[in-house]
Write a structure and sequence with these properties.
Purple Acid Phosphatase, chain A, domain 2; disordered C terminus
Length: about 270
């Protein structure tokens, strides 16, 4: 059975780079449904596609699934532009039926209002020092490449996954946060827009917390953390990690769900 939510938020898929986990995204979506799907920026990595990235059939399958949701399930899909898919600026705003592309969105959740935005516009590095951001993107791409090969080695040795790039990136992002006060700025923007919370992506750090009286939500990414934000019908929000969700799909059935032995049943040897 598919799990249905009122809202699902995904961000930072970075379709077009080798490290994008699009197959996992598609698998996750096939196991769920929702009234509203928000694609909160950096879905398509235009920066990498201009350089060394490549568009493959698996990336097209993602959008085919989204179009299927719109046509068959009447799902409302909102695509918010990020810094890596800033090529969308050429057509903003755009709307066709249940599909729209915009820079930000006000989401009504129960009796609360949420300001939804990718988040790069509040990042000093990606706005005022774009050349430095792209230089950092090259370094991050290299770290992901190194991380992939390093973990292939660890798998052969029977060792658990270890994210080199996540450790380095956290230190870099802490520096960015120090400069721009990323989360604090987003909380202030939510207040300025008379919202109770803010929903963002960009920094690849899933979160569900309070900053003062502002509910701060970050959907994470589908390069490393593989996470999504979901909202139930009552307006409750949760971060779902793909690794935990997939385990729940393959977990053995609870004893209460296993039929008791009955007379006349014969167990055959395997």
């Amino acid at each position: 059975m598919k799990k249905h939510y009122k809202t699902i938020v995904l961000s930072d898929l970075h379709l077009g780079i080798k490290n994008s986990r699009v197959k996992e995204v598609v698998e996750f979506l096939k196991g769920h449904s929702c009234d509203t799907l928000i694609l909160n920026g950096d879905i398509i990595d235009g920066w990498q596609l201009k350089k060394s990235g490549s568009w493959k059939s698996k990336h097209t399958k993602f959008f085919k699934l989204i179009m299927k949701w719109i046509a068959k399930n009447d799902t409302k899909v909102i695509y918010l532009r990020g810094n890596h898919d800033d090529f969308l600026d050429e057509i903003l705003p755009f709307s066709l039926g249940n599909f729209s592309i915009k820079k930000h969105h006000i989401l009504h959740s129960a009796d609360k209002r949420y300001y939804v935005v990718h988040g790069d516009i509040f990042d000093t590095v990606t706005t005022k020092l774009k050349w430095l951001a792209k230089l950092g993107d090259v370094g991050y791409t290299f770290l992901l490449w190194l991380n992939r090969h390093y973990n292939n080695y660890r798998v052969k040795k029977g060792l658990p996954y270890y994210s080199l790039s996540q450790v380095v990136k956290q230190k870099v992002k802490q520096a960015v946060s120090f400069i721009s006060d990323f989360e604090e700025q987003l909380a202030e923007v939510a207040k300025a827009n008379r919202c109770h919370g803010v929903i963002c992506g960009h920094i690849h750090q899933p979160a569900n917390k309070m900053i003062g009286n502002i509910h701060y939500l970050n959907s994470g990414d589908w390069v490393e953390t593989l996470s999504a934000l979901v909202e139930d019908e009552a307006g409750n929000w949760e971060v779902i990690f793909y690794s935990e969700w997939i385990k729940s799909q393959t977990a053995p059935a609870p004893e209460s769900m296993i039929a008791p032995a009955t007379e006349g049943w014969v167990l055959q040897p395997a």
